[in-house]
Amino acid sequence: VSVVESGGGLVEPGGSLTLTCKCSGVPFDEYHASWHCQTPGKERELVAFITGDGNNARIVDAVKGRFTLSRDNDRDLVSLEMNSLNPNVTAVYYCNLQGMSSNTGFWGQGTQVTVSS
After folding, report:
1. pLDDT at position 103, please?
2. 85 closest CA partner among 18, 15, 8, 37
3. Alpha-carbon gap, residue 111 to 117, rounded angstroms
4. 74: phi then psi, degrees, rounded to nearest 5
5. Which of 81, 90, 97, 109 is most buried as measured by Cβ atoms within 10 A of its Cβ?
6. Residue 65: count of CB within 10 angstroms of its CB
7. Helix (H, G, I), strand (E, B), or coil: what is residue 19?
């Protein structure tokens, strides 16, 4: 199983980034997907969640209206579009897959997002 995030980087306040999570080795549409962020010394926190079929997505209130989550089950990838970025969202962002009918889960290695002028 492979879960690989990409798209992180350094961006100025007000800028945008799109994170992508490419998955392989699992029946992708049988897994819910989510993005989480983590800063040093803190717990990993949920940012956005989307069901296996892509019909239901949830964004946490702190970034609702600025972040958009989508998935492409034909290409086995999940994307997090991040707009109007501010330094508060600086963190390592991780992609997670969680089996819809099992307790199986997989994490990616994370991608760093830094918002700074």
Report:
1. 85
2. 15
3. 19
4. -80, -30
5. 97
6. 9
7. strand
Q: What is the distance between the alpha carbons of residues 63 and 22, in angstroms, rounded to a whole number?
A: 23
* Bridge-based pairing state of the strands 111-115 and 67-72: unpaired
Structure tokens at 19: 């994170």
Adjacent-strand bridge partners of 72: 77
Question: What length is written for the chain?
Answer: 117
Task: Round to whole Å and give the CA distance between 33 and 99.
Answer: 9
Whether the pLDDT of residue 102 is over 90: the answer is no
Q: What distance in Å separates the CA atoms of residue 99 and residue 23, rounded to the nearest whole number? A: 13
Q: How confident is the model at residue 95, as a pLDDT?
A: 98
For tokens 């990616």, what's the residue?
A: 108
- How far apart are the C-alpha atoms of 71 and 41, rounded to whole Å? 30
Render pLDDT for 26-70 as a digit per residue (tens, 0 to 9). Answer: 999 999 999 999 999 999 999 999 999 999 999 999 999 999 999
Separation CA 19–CA 94 (nearest Å): 10
Mean residue pLDDT of the chain comes to 97
